[in-house]
TrEMBL record:
This is Radial spoke head 1 homolog. GO terms for cellular component: motile cilium; nucleus. It comes from Brachypodius melanocephalos (black-headed bulbul). Functions as part of axonemal radial spoke complexes that play an important part in the motility of sperm and cilia. Pfam families: MORN. It is found in: Cytoplasm, Cytoskeleton, Flagellum axoneme. It comes from the Eukaryota. The gene is Rsph1. GO terms for biological process: axoneme assembly; meiotic cell cycle; spermatid development. InterPro entries: MORN. PANTHER family: RADIAL SPOKE HEAD 1 HOMOLOG. Its main location: cytoplasm. The lineage of its organism: Eukaryota, Metazoa, Chordata, Craniata, Vertebrata. Residues 1-20, 171-190 are annotated as: Disordered. Keywords: Cell projection, Cilium, Cytoplasm, Cytoskeleton, Flagellum, Meiosis, Repeat.
Length: 204
């Protein structure tokens, strides 16, 4: 069902409201039969998108409310979260930063609601990867991450005015003789401290 403006060819064109066969509804701008420009799309499952469209796809600025209570507000390209945006997760965590292909990608800040800790740094395909800071209530870690875990040289900076330098080392998996059906879980990197110093100025 559709009520709204049409062009001389009879296509939906201008402002209109539509009830789609799957039970979703759309209210907003059309151009030559396609959703184009600002509009609001309500999904039957309770999700809602309000924002910009380009040829039936979410494109430009928009806000998406998911059925689980989470929400994304930011840039869209070709129906994907892409560019800059903020995501509020169902558990209260938030991510603010860069996106590509629906995933956290580039520079961004992730705040853990339960602990108040935050990760500020690089992401690759949704995973913490690259130089970053992990900031806790009274200390922080500055170093590099690889596949979501700290690895290599870094330092802990404590609010009381000192630093602990060292590195995260990936322990080697010990081989067992028996055939294992499941691959073993990767071991957690181990922190090896080298020195404790007074605060050093941040490199520019």
């Amino acid at each position: 069902e559709y009520e709204g403006d049409r062009n001389s060819e009879g296509q939906r064109h201008g402002f209109g409201k539509a009830l789609l066969p799957n039970g979703d509804t759309y209210e907003g701008e059309y151009e030559c039969g396609l959703r184009n420009g600002p509009g609001t799309y309500r999904f039957k499952n309770g999700a809602l998108y309000t924002g910009n469209y380009l040829q039936n796809k979410k494109h430009g600025k928009g806000v998406f409310f998911y059925p689980d209570g989470s929400k994304y507000a930011g840039d869209w390209v070709d129906d994907q979260r892409q560019g800059y945006g903020e995501y509020l997760y169902a558990n209260g965590d938030t991510y603010t930063g860069e996106w590509a292909n629906n995933k956290r990608h580039g520079q961004g800040t992730y705040v853990y609601k339960e602990t108040g800790s935050k990760y500020v740094g690089c992401w690759v395909n949704g995973i913490q990867d690259g130089p970053a800071e992990l900031i806790h209530r009274n200390y922080r870690f500055k170093g590099r991450f690889l596949s979501g875990k700290p690895l290599g040289r870094g330092k802990f900076i404590f609010d009381i005015g000192c630093e602990q330098h060292g590195e995260y080392i990936q322990p080697v998996q010990e081989k067992e003789e028996e055939e294992e059906e499941e691959p073993p879980l990767p071991l957690e990197p181990i922190w090896k401290a080298s020195e404790i110093t007074k605060l050093t100025p941040w490199p520019p």
